[in-house]
Design a protein that fits this description.
The protein is of the alpha+beta class. The protein has two domains: 63 residues, Orthogonal Bundle (Arc Repressor Mutant, subunit A); 121 residues, Umud Fragment, subunit A, CATH 2.10.109. Helices cover 18% and strands 34% of the residues. Strands 3, 4, 5, 6, 7, 8, 9, 10, 11 and 12 form a ten-stranded mixed β-sheet that branches. Strands 1-2 form a two-stranded antiparallel sheet. The radius of gyration is 21 Å and the shape is elongated.
Length: 210
Amino acid sequence: MALTRKLREVYDFLIRFQQSNGYAPTIAEIQKEFDLSSPATVHEHLAALEREGLIRRQKYERRGIEILTSTSGTASNPIASTVDSEIPLLGVVAAGLPIEAILTRETLAVSPDLYGPRRFALRVRGDSMRDEQIADGDLIIVEPAEDARNGQTVVALVDDAEATVKKIYYEKAHIRLQPANENFKPILVNPPDRVRVQGIVVGLIRRYRQ
């Protein structure tokens, strides 16, 4: 089964909405969620999901979308039913001193539990986050975000040019980007607006060398 990224996003939304509310979203709610210009576009997406056997639509019912289940009673998620799903591998980030962001246009196959429609991966260079189990050469999975809570591990852009992965702390006069390795000093950035959070680290992939 091969779904486009947009269809995956729509299907994920249907599942999340159903689980949170106990009923299906309306066409208007789907249209609003994805900022679609026309309800006809929503109907096209739903028709495609129905052709794949993932949903069933009840005519003339306002919340007439039924998510089909497998014999085990769980939703037949097209992502969970495959071994891997792809997210963008956008480049390299430093776990050390900030380095100039290096961008690529590759993709990375990840397991369903790491997949997210907006998530991306970065390859780590350096070992300043060693005590957080983030090592040189690891791949981190990042959920895009523009801010974070104190102590979260983030990908931050300094001066719109240099990228680093660190724990972030908002302090009175500066932002502290804290390593997790006693051999590295914290990076103190003042004024704080020189730092822009790019995302929060939510997963890790390690490929062991033979």
